[in-house]
Structure formats: C-alpha cells, structure tokens
Design goal:
Chain lengths: ~110, ~110
C-alpha cells in the first residue's frame, strides 16, 4: 500500500517570489511520482512526473521537482510564481505493476498574492 | 483540453436514486480510471478498466459499479444514492504502458439532496 502526505494545506506567496510545495510518500515498493494541478472548476492537469533517471524533473509552466529516495520526498518548486499559478496542487504516486491507479495526497492550495 | 470527455457536467438528484456517469477516453487510450473527489475524503481511486476488463479496484462501494464498452467508453453507475455520495467524479484515461500519463476529464459534479 502507498500513502502520500502533503505537509501544507495552504501556501500563500507573493507574486514573483519562489515557492516550494512539500510532498512525502510511503510505499513498500518502488513507485512513480507525479504532481498534478487543478484550476477552479477544472480537471487535473499533469505538471511533471518522475519515472527513473535524473532526480531533478522539469515540468510545464516553469515548475520542477526533486526526487529524494532517502527522504522519500518529491517537493515541487518554482523560482518565481505568477498570479495565474493560483490553484490546488496534488502530489500522487503509482505502483509499477499492471495496475496504475494513482494515490493522491490531500492537496495544497497555492494562492499567489499581488 | 485533455481529450477526455465526461457527461453530464452537473447532476442533481435525490437520495435513493440511481445515476449513470459517462466517460469517453482519449482516442487510442485503452485504460479508463474513475476517481471520486470529496471534501472529507479527498481524491480517491475507485476502479480501473483496461480494454473492457476490470483491472483494479479501489475504495468503491458495493452500490457503485462500472463497465467499459467495446468502443472503450466507460460508465459509472451509482445506486441507492446517499447524501455522502455528493462529490466530483473524474474519469482519466491512459494508453497502456507502465509509464503512461493519466489524462483527466473535467469531471461530473454530483449533488444528492
């Protein structure tokens, strides 16, 4: 079984400031890691994913995340946020077997202030 | 636009009723997943179908069932509805391989009164 913990339910940040959204996971097997974003009244959109290889993963909209196996973390970062980044962000894991279902964290609401 | 379509967008119904939610995956995608998003439970996986066969089951209630048809669209049936079933129901699809991205539809918002 897998679980995901997003340590901050709400993160307010000023425009053009850097931001880090934290994610820790627990699993007895190797996993794939994902970050999804949900804008108001919309579905989830993939920001980035870690499958293997380099632990620093770059995604869309200037976001990146670093996989840390020893810390079992996959924190999301952006060096300079925009008002349009205001949304809910979900960290998720999936197993590597034949079933690919995602286990999500509880989400972090990022609010970018002018 | 992810290419995954869900109908209807909104559904309001009464307790005890039965509803059907429909999902059309992206062209070429063989796998369909259903997720429930509610305020108290967050985003939870319900069930996965691959090319018409059930592949995995999550926290899906016995009152809920799903199927995937030969044209690969899927339906989620919710019966004997309770107030607590009010939620956003998402469908996602992926191609087939182990590293495929799941693409999410816009969701169906179900309100049970």
């Amino acid at each position: 079984a897998q679980s995901v913990t997003q340590l901050d339910s709400q993160v307010p940040v000023f425009e053009e400031a850097p931001v880090e959204l934290r994610c820790n996971y627990s699993s007895s097997v190797s996993v794939y890691l994902f970050w999804y974003v949900q804008y108001p009244n919309q579905g989830l959109q993939l920001l980035l994913k870690y499958l293997s290889g380099s632990t620093l993963v770059k995604g869309i909209n200037g976001f990146e995340a670093e996989f840390n196996k020893s810390q079992t973390s996959f924190h999301l970062r952006k060096p300079s946020v925009h008002i349009s980044d205001t949304a809910e962000y979900f960290c998720a894991v999936s197993g590597k077997g034949s079933a690919r279902q995602l286990t999500f964290g509880s989400g972090t609401q990022l609010t970018v202030l002018p | 636009d992810s290419g995954v379509t869900q109908t209807p967008k909104h559904l309001i119904t009464a307790t005890g009723q039965r509803v059907t939610l429909r999902c059309s995956p992206r062209s070429g995608d063989l796998s369909v997943y259903w997720y429930q998003q509610s305020l108290d439970q967050g985003l939870q996986f319900l069930i996965q179908y691959y090319n018409g066969e059930e592949r995995a089951k999550g926290n899906i209630l016995e009152r809920f069932s799903a199927q995937q048809f030969p044209d690969l669209h899927s339906e989620l049936n919710l019966s004997s509805l309770e107030l607590g079933d009010s939620a956003l129901y998402f469908c996602a699809s992926s191609v087939v391989s182990s590293t495929d991205t799941q693409y999410f539809g816009p969701g169906t918002r179900l309100t049970v009164l």
